[in-house]
Design a protein that fits this description.
Blueprint: H1 4-15, E1 19-23, E2 33-40, E3 44-50, E4 56-63, E5 69-72, H2 75-87, H3 105-116, E6 119-124, E7 130-137, E8 141-147, E9 153-160, E10 164-169, H4 172-182, H5 184-187
């Protein structure tokens, strides 16, 4: 892991259930993801994400080594916390039972998505994001049936797990594509 202090901060935010902002893109220092850290391991961080308007936006999984900075307790995080409280929104866990300290969070998240029949989005290294349903996941690779822009089944794609930089589940975009996917018989 490249930044031991960020790893320490991630663990503190997770243990103390503190809202945090994670900065992961060295090419865009203003890009961040905010939320509650559900789990952190040496390899991955699972975040219950909150958008800038203080609304839940599913879960994001990042590689721990990609987290460059972690902010907690700044004005922005305090405002997001206030918005969540005003809406009566509580952080919900994706993984039940909670993961073991050395568990493969990426694989567990993908298996959960497969069990739920939920859409996931994966961002492989050197590629664009792909959204679809998990067909198969093992120790080495992921196979998903991707959807096109209109929510129609497209093709089955395989990705080595080690190349997946970010994975999301339950985001607003995935919910929108799920709605299109589910309505296809009515729309055709």
């Amino acid at each position: 892991m490249s930044n031991k202090y960020s790893y320490y901060q991630l663990r503190i935010a997770c243990q103390q259930k503190m809202l945090a902002s994670l900065y992961c893109d060295p090419n865009d220092p203003d890009a961040f993801s905010a939320g509650y850290i559900e789990a952190v391991t040496q390899k991955h961080v699972l975040l219950w994400a909150i958008n800038v308007w203080g609304q839940s936006d599913g879960w994001c999984l990042f590689r721990t080594e990609d987290v460059l900075q972690v902010y907690m307790g700044d004005d922005f995080e305090v405002r997001l916390q206030m918005l969540l409280e005003l809406d009566g929104t509580a952080c919900t866990a994706l993984l039940n039972p909670p993961p073991e300290p050395e568990e493969d969070l990426l694989r567990r998240m993908l298996e959960t998505a497969k069990e739920q029949g939920a859409l996931v989005t994966v961002l492989p290294l050197e590629d664009e994001p792909h959204t679809g349903t998990v067909q198969q996941v093992d120790d080495l690779r992921l196979s998903i049936h991707t959807l096109d822009f209109f929510g129609a089944p497209d093709q089955v794609r395989q990705f080595p797990l080690r190349n997946i930089q970010v994975a999301t589940l339950g985001t607003q975009e995935e919910k929108m594509l799920q709605k299109l996917y589910d309505a296809r018989p009515k729309l055709l």
